[in-house]
Records
---
Amino acid sequence: MHQAPVSRTFPRSSEKTRRIRTLAVAIVGSLYAALPVAALETPDYGDIAPILARHCASCHQPGDIAPMTLGSYEEVRPWARAIARKVAAREMPPWFADPEVGSFRNDARLEPSEIDRLVEWARAGAPRGEGPDSASVTVPPAPPDDRWRLGTPDLVVEMPEAFPVPAEGVVDYVYVRLPSGLAEPRWIRAIEVQPGAREVVHHIDVLACSAGCPEDEDFAALEPGELSFLPGSPITERPRPRTDAGIDGDDIEFLTSFLPGGVPQELPDGHARLLPAGADLVLNLHYTPSGTAVHDRSRVGLWFADAAPRQRVVSMFLDNFSIWIPAGEASHRVTTRATLAQEARLLALTPHMHSRGRSAEVYLEPAEASAPRALLKVPRYDFNWQITYELAEPLALQAGDTIRYELSWDNSEQNPHNPDPSRDVPWGRQTSDEMASVFVTLAVPPEVEPSELFE
């Protein structure tokens, strides 16, 4: 489960990594002459540094998950051609939404003029220019472990012990249930997730569940404060196919995620999320070993509003628990629907599958007889980047409107990320299984309960 995002990472210090980087630079150099570029005055590093600061340096900094640092001219120069190739192919920065569908306020794409300048700079030999020798990208560094970007939180909830992340291998999702200790409900206006070891944290999802997580057998089974691996899927036989979404968001609600390069979640004025009295926070942690064994002890900071908001923000977890992806199938497609019972405003969409995920499309089917409207298309889904697509403007939804989403998976041998193409794959929480999910973030009047939002 899971606002900008992590790419597949390589062990930071291994000989294999160095060979891969050398080969990548050689390949890029051999193809480089084919790069298109507009006729421009040759830029220097002073022109390039602000582009890197805006779009790259939040992940490419010391101690973060990106494989190299882009903080100074000396650090950027050896990667100039590789950067040009990646941005020209629109592989970086990561953004997978079809540009012909929807408009999103967190669109991470470079402007064509920015791509042209990076390409021309690299083609010209990456000149430094006349700036000072110490010229560097000006970007806020990752805060140290004892500093929060939004100041001192009203409440900090922390893992009770550090989790040992090995140097290599695959680490199953880790879950920990943390009591909030709140004696009364509070409205959350901002949330910040602070990983203890950024270099290995792929993402952290933060969920809130009412005291004891009564409606979820898996989460209720978690002992408060203990680090746990939830079991693989209990589904062993093909379920009856369904097109109606299973919906979480009443006793369990998605709050936010940490993703490399992401920023704290600050809700607009007059908007807040509700944290019930006695609620527990459930952290879902995904680690990617970096070549060095480390320990991670992540934490969450919450800032509370002084009064009830004009609009309550809720994230509903739509899922299709009946999926069954046949072994070897290269394009298995499932359609799922959820119909609104109340008016709401749509703020954001987050498709979610695991490593076999191939594509995602989300549509609005209005209650009136007008044609469906495409809200989001992700033709090349990548599990390594769990992106929330934030609408540029909230979209008014009416009772009776249906959200339809269509997901596809590649369970064939041709999928290099497929852990086992010989296996029929059911729904499950671990990455060896699959999910068919879309997080739908809505704004509603504060008196509306999430359980009342969908039919």
---
Amino acid sequence: MKSPLWTSDAVIEATEGLSQHSWTATGFSIDSRTIEPGDLFLALKGPIHDGHDYVEEAIKRGAVAAIVHKDYPSEIPVVRVEDTYEALKALAIASRKRTKAKIIAVTGSFGKTSTKEALKLVLSHQGQVIASQRSYNNFWGVPLTLCQLPENYDYGVIEIGMNYPNEITPLSQMVKPDICLITTVERMHIENCGSYEGVADAKAEIFDGMDRGSPAVIKKDNPMFSRIEARARQKGLEVIAFGADPTADIRLLDTTVVDNKLLVKAMIGARELSYYVPAVGEHWAYNSLGLLAVVWQIGANVELAAESLSQFQLLEGRGAIKEINFGQGKITIVDESYNAGPGSMIAALKTLGRLQPGQGGRRIAVLGDMGELGSHSKELHIALSEPIADNKIDLIFATGEKMYDLFQVLDAKARGYHDNDLEVFSIKVAEQIQTGDVIMVKGSRGMRAYVGRMSKVIEKILERSKQFNTA
């Protein structure tokens, strides 16, 4: 049985709303399609849909009430407010004030969603924890997560993202993190932030809602470490550095790939630990160090957390590795299709380089444009030729005008196919896959809602696989 989350009195007090009904809610949602019996529905007006059009549907699905800024018949249980988005923020602030949970904020240029999910997993073995759903890390996703946080939980893991400067500051001030983790700072959103340093400054906004003396966990092996460290110390925060650098507080000693898993050896304070992460990419060794640093700093059991990491499963679009029956053999797909930037692209190419193709197979990278790079776009796309060579990638399929800059400079034997039409491109790629291939698919997300546009390539490969296996 679910515990009470919100009462009508608590909502009225937080939002200064009006209601003629008394109720207790056990859940909170802004999407009428996900309503479960007992939920409280908040009707947000978006650029395409208006939640007010779905209030009655939400009530029929079992919502105990709705928060609205329009009038409804008196028999419909609503809390009438001036503006539902302002009400969402007010409820988030009220939830943060009342909770006893340790609040962990996670940001970074890449790896934040997967690291957030890994933190949720390891902490779930040590207490009650809630974490942001999917990549709900923006101006409505962050307050939504706080509104869903039960008062008596032990941990809340809040992902905070940005596209532009000054977006993280108000979210951090709302979340008031007890501790924060910056996974890494790379050249993503550089078009919007003006420079690499501007990206670092935007990520460092996560410190703006933290109390003096709170820990900030930062990757030491990063060109922007000193800049971010200085910002943290200006705020009076305690800096906890992780990385391979000998001066790091959490130090990477060694990584080995064993049966497609990383065996990580690390020094955490005075303790040496060895543990497995179900991934092959070296960046996951760093992600694991960051999250174990958080576990250490909040006083949870580090050894248990390290052991729990072996149960983590990489997310679709964010590094999940799939072995697929293909004709008389198999192929391997590394699904990195959700999004891309220079740093995450290099990490994905390194992952591909660590995987061994089957007999007669090839290492294939299927790459789409990296967005929001501004005037640096051409040089950063072309620069991928070096990690492609270093990691012995046999064949490159590329789509998009920006990725064509890279395609042109590749050795002729490495050029597979290029097309700006994603549908045509995806079909062509699928037609050229053969048994034993290892295929990594990655590109910027584009406008598709919760999956990257490059997932179209994986769809076509899977379709061809089914045709092969039913022929």
---
Amino acid sequence: MSKESILIIDDNELYIDALEAILRDDGYEEIFALTKGHNVLATLENNKIDLILLDISLPDVSGIELYSRIKENKLYSHIPIIFITGHGDVKIAVEAMKLGAFYFLSKPVQPYELQTLIRCALDNSKLQREIASLKVQLQTNQSLIIGKTPAIKKVMTRIAQVAHCDATVFVKGESGTGKSLVAKAIHESSLRSKHPFIAIDCGAIPSSLLESELFGHEKGAFTGAVRKKKGFFLRAHQGTLFLDEITNLPLELQPKLLRVIQEREITPIGSDKEIKVDVRIVTATNDNIEEMVNEGKFRRDLYYRLNVFSIDLPPLHQRREDIPLLAQHFLNKYSPNTKKSFSKEAMQTIINYDWPGNIRELDHAIEHAVIISNSKEIQKQDLPSALQSKTSSPSLNFDSLYTLKEMEKKYLEKVLMHTSYNQTQAAKILGIERKSLWRKLKRFEISIPQNENPNEAK
């Protein structure tokens, strides 16, 4: 039974009753409700409130205005606020989050999502003092999450918000933007940091083996199972399991992952015994997962469970001010004893390039330059040829409007043409594995001319 008290502000009494039922099922006893906003300060004055669920559309005052009133009062500014919004109010709710709201939920609210976010918000509120010191800790733990731009600072703030609770986290961003580093930073900054951090690339393991890798198997469970194997979930017990490229998870395995999230237990292949697991799950993708959900290629219910708390990583070209810092970091990494530096021309070339492969491509480019350079200063000619020949990635013609799917296909074609259809080089620029590029070519029905790169390994 929870001692925390929650205030619901919503003009729909039936919806208040529904929210109260969800909260009482989760052990909350102290629940207050208002149907209008004008009495909120009096309610806060007369009662100890730990969290507010606020409808963004009220009859007497807007949710945004009410939020501002609460946060302007120093006595109540620490109270976390979760907005409840209708479909048409999502843009307003996003603006509220920019002002500092903890999160927002769209109606109809899913019980599990509401309960998880409330626990996360309450934990976050209790640990505000720890978060102040946590930011110092994050600077150490996020040694590769380097930057000073507002975009990357927002990412760091999101990590700090979610680190100390067990909500599932979905990290979204282009290939090479540092999704695995974010997952690692969440783990290292959490109460699970002394326990295992296990990372698995769902796209790198054959689908026929993935179930065994995740859940384990008993000896003799199938041909080749000569010994009992502990899966990734058990190996990550009490720690964090990072499922990268989650969109590559086969449809037939998705219900099993959903069940693990719901029940917190697994059943190894060949066993009839259920094993309890205590694992924090972080997932990531560079695909348009919402599109895949709409196309039936990824289960909607699983996506909702995975996307309780999301972190969006910006591409490198949107945080250009961070490029010199990152470039210097990689230079120190690959030449720790020689103290190399960049010439002005080389640094300007690095800054002006659009980095379609993001941080991973920058990492490889600096490593290449260190290998080529025979002086203490990196010159422009030491950089990869892609940077020397142009200072921006292959351009697209925006005279016509395209869907995201069409745009992705056109960009793939541009990169392939840019590399003379060298798939290994194209994959490196895109920041993906060659196997992933092959799948994309198959998906978009892009053919490679037979007379191009005949000697390249298939």
